[in-house]
Amino acid sequence: MPPKKTTTTGGGGGGERGQIGGGDANLKQKSPAEFFQDNKGIAGFENAGKSLYTTLREFIENALDAAEHIGVLPQVDVLVEEVTLTQYETMIGLDAHVRKDDTLYDDFETEKARAKRLEREAKVEMQLEKAAAANANKGKKGGGRGNANSSKGEEKKSYFKITVKDNGKGMEHSDIPNMLGRVLSGTKYGVRQTRGKFGLGSKMALIWSKQTTGLPIRVRSAQPGQNFVSEYVLDIDIEKNAPNVHKEEKKPNTTKWHGAELSVTIEGNWTSHRQYVLAYLRQLAIVTPYAALGFRYISSHAAGSAAARNQDIQLHFARRAEVMPPLPRATKYHPSAAKENQLLVKDLLSNTREKTLSGFFNKEFTCINREHANRLSRELGAGFSASMHPKNVSDKQGARIQQLLASARFSDPSGECLSPAGEYNLRLGVMKELGPDWIASYASPALACGGHPLIVEACVSLGGRDVKPGFNVFRFANRIPLLFEGGADVATRCVQRLNWTTYKIDKNNDKIGVFVSIVSTKIPFKGTSKEYIGDENAEIAEAVDKAIKQCAAQLRGKIVRAQALKDRRARKKALTKYVPDCCNAIFTMIASAADADTLPHERARNYDEKEMLWPVDVQWEEEATQKARTREITAEILQKRLEECVEKIDNEEALEFSMQQNKDGLKQDVFLNPFSSFAHEYEPELRPGESGVAFRLLKKARLIA
Ligand SMILES: Nc1ncnc2c1ncn2[C@@H]1O[C@H](COP(=O)(O)OP(=O)(O)OP(=O)(O)O)[C@@H](O)[C@H]1O
């Protein structure tokens, strides 16, 4: 059957629009915007509550990306304002009608009804919290998403105006409509670690806003050094997947501000997702301690009323570190990317500026040096040469190159292009947020995952405030906290698989905090809503598993040491307890010998007078008696000596235990934050000694100070 000639029909609307002419009447086309409008759930917009959460998340993550991109310490201010129906009607220009009889309307609520509703919502919220905690515990797939849905049917519609302001790089004036009004457009598609990746998030917020309130997005933006502020009001033409600009202006930038301020009005559900928003912010503060985050929620109650005071929220997560981790850098693909993507080699060959095949291997991929590139060129066999021009590589030859790269062995990438949270930052955040009794951390070396460098960092803590017994898993990807779908995530699965008893940790009763942070130039999220990373990727699962095990092993050492210390203390306490009684008994005996008319040797039956040799016990008794007579031995002296003896035994035991535990002597890891923005290459180490602490810095394996 010959292929059908297809032409796109324009306009039309509804079911007819997008039909392809000449063939089956059911054959239609959809724009990306339409696709995502119909499948909002895959982008995290499945219901009003989740959409409110995702909108905030997308805006905040864009704000952090924008500030970090220009190396500025992020300052992000978030405002969520509840909008009453009347305010909403004013916004959409329906305020001409002044209601005469409020009770006629569907949204009318008496004070009593309102109080009842708030009570009901609070109950639902509590149930949600409980269910979310239980789900995270049991590792059930679905997280809070399903729960959040369950109450939806009963809720009245609520509207919220969300405004997020940052101090980032801003956007080029002419790019703003496309950046925010065309689905699948963005600046983060390259091989670089960023929180955003798909070019979708803020457009989804706009699509949700358009669908639920019909209101456009308002944007203010200025780039560093720009003398004007771009102001836009725009929405999206969903059928065409194109921006629809309502207003465009350039205003003088009198304050030399740079950054962006985005504002949308959407339907949302604060009650069901308040906890998630607050947990998200708290966890964001853990992995981004160098950012200052301000959050304000203003309810629709009359300002100043008691009800408003109860519901309004103002939070400030202060900056705890003045140093940003090294900024992520754009990098090239690892050659193993050819395994995943058959088209990659073809794409790279047609876009390369290199003039030779070996130059192509060397410059378009990481982990291939010149010599390696020449060896690969030779390995390709007949028809190839190191000096051939990449543009002359045929499709068939391209397939051969792809095949070779997919099957050859390459070293792991260095990971220098990545910006992990850092063990120091993770520990700092965990200690600040949870105040655990014990904490251990580990950072994996970089590995190649699907052709992208990837680093896993983990912290495991025991004890702390607000931590429930059992597992408390916290997940981060490219420094984004992941709150939903926890049960299916690789971190949760690894935690469940681990045999914690081996590490002397009671998985049911100990308060275990597990923090896993993964950074990569491409995080293999399941779905575009960036909720979780699947467990089926063996490389990631292995790396996460190893990181958690390393932390657990460190904790095991601490637990064993603490147990030994506890045992020693108990023994010392028991010994010390009997010291006074022992002293009294011994001294009474010595004192009665000292008071006697004869000395012990005179009473001893087997005293050899000629040799003046006494049995040892008599000799001891003789000496003690003499000393008691001259008051060199008193009850107090005896007690002091016995106490010293207990102390000495205790110290010797402690030292022996430490030497057994740690063949290298007594040592303790410490974490130092570098002053500069560059990661230092030194590992500090503390060695407690008899009368102080020795501190040294180790460069790789070599001692430098
Ligand atoms: N606050 C901001 N400051 C500067 N640029 C921004 C800001 N918000 C959005 N942008 C620009 O708009 C683009 C599109 O943003 P959008 O949220 O739609 O997708 P993304 O962040 O690229 O990817 P993802 O969908 O994975 O979040 C971004 O790539 C960025 O260049």
UniProtKB/TrEMBL annotation:
<dbReference type="GO" id="GO:0009330">
    <property type="term" value="C:DNA topoisomerase type II (double strand cut, ATP-hydrolyzing) complex"/>
</dbReference>
<feature type="region of interest" description="Disordered">
    <location>
        <begin position="1"/>
        <end position="30"/>
    </location>
</feature>
<feature type="binding site">
    <location>
        <position position="530"/>
    </location>
    <ligand>
        <name>ATP</name>
    </ligand>
</feature>
<dbReference type="GO" id="GO:0003918">
    <property type="term" value="F:DNA topoisomerase type II (double strand cut, ATP-hydrolyzing) activity"/>
</dbReference>
<keyword id="KW-0238">DNA-binding</keyword>
<keyword id="KW-0547">Nucleotide-binding</keyword>
<feature type="domain" description="DNA topoisomerase VI subunit B transducer">
    <location>
        <begin position="413"/>
        <end position="570"/>
    </location>
</feature>
<dbReference type="Pfam" id="PF13589">
    <property type="entry name" value="HATPase_c_3"/>
</dbReference>
<keyword id="KW-0799">Topoisomerase</keyword>
<keyword id="KW-0067">ATP-binding</keyword>
<dbReference type="InterPro" id="IPR036890">
    <property type="entry name" value="HATPase_C_sf"/>
</dbReference>
<dbReference type="Pfam" id="PF09239">
    <property type="entry name" value="Topo-VIb_trans"/>
</dbReference>
<feature type="binding site">
    <location>
        <position position="166"/>
    </location>
    <ligand>
        <name>ATP</name>
    </ligand>
</feature>
<dbReference type="GO" id="GO:0006265">
    <property type="term" value="P:DNA topological change"/>
</dbReference>
<feature type="binding site">
    <location>
        <position position="62"/>
    </location>
    <ligand>
        <name>ATP</name>
    </ligand>
</feature>
<dbReference type="GO" id="GO:0005634">
    <property type="term" value="C:nucleus"/>
</dbReference>
<feature type="binding site">
    <location>
        <begin position="196"/>
        <end position="203"/>
    </location>
    <ligand>
        <name>ATP</name>
    </ligand>
</feature>
<keyword id="KW-0413">Isomerase</keyword>
<comment type="function">
    <text>Component of the DNA topoisomerase VI involved in chromatin organization and progression of endoreduplication cycles. Relaxes both positive and negative superturns and exhibits a strong decatenase activity. The B subunit binds ATP.</text>
</comment>
<dbReference type="InterPro" id="IPR014721">
    <property type="entry name" value="Ribsml_uS5_D2-typ_fold_subgr"/>
</dbReference>
<comment type="similarity">
    <text>Belongs to the TOP6B family.</text>
</comment>
<comment type="subunit">
    <text>Homodimer. Heterotetramer of two TOP6A and two TOP6B subunits.</text>
</comment>
<feature type="region of interest" description="Disordered">
    <location>
        <begin position="133"/>
        <end position="157"/>
    </location>
</feature>
<dbReference type="InterPro" id="IPR005734">
    <property type="entry name" value="TopoVI_B"/>
</dbReference>
<dbReference type="InterPro" id="IPR020568">
    <property type="entry name" value="Ribosomal_Su5_D2-typ_SF"/>
</dbReference>
<dbReference type="InterPro" id="IPR015320">
    <property type="entry name" value="TopoVI_B_transducer"/>
</dbReference>
<dbReference type="GO" id="GO:0005524">
    <property type="term" value="F:ATP binding"/>
</dbReference>
<keyword id="KW-0539">Nucleus</keyword>
<protein>
    <recommendedName>
        <fullName>DNA topoisomerase 6 subunit B</fullName>
        <ecNumber>5.6.2.2</ecNumber>
    </recommendedName>
</protein>
<feature type="compositionally biased region" description="Gly residues">
    <location>
        <begin position="9"/>
        <end position="24"/>
    </location>
</feature>
<dbReference type="GO" id="GO:0003677">
    <property type="term" value="F:DNA binding"/>
</dbReference>
<feature type="binding site">
    <location>
        <begin position="187"/>
        <end position="188"/>
    </location>
    <ligand>
        <name>ATP</name>
    </ligand>
</feature>
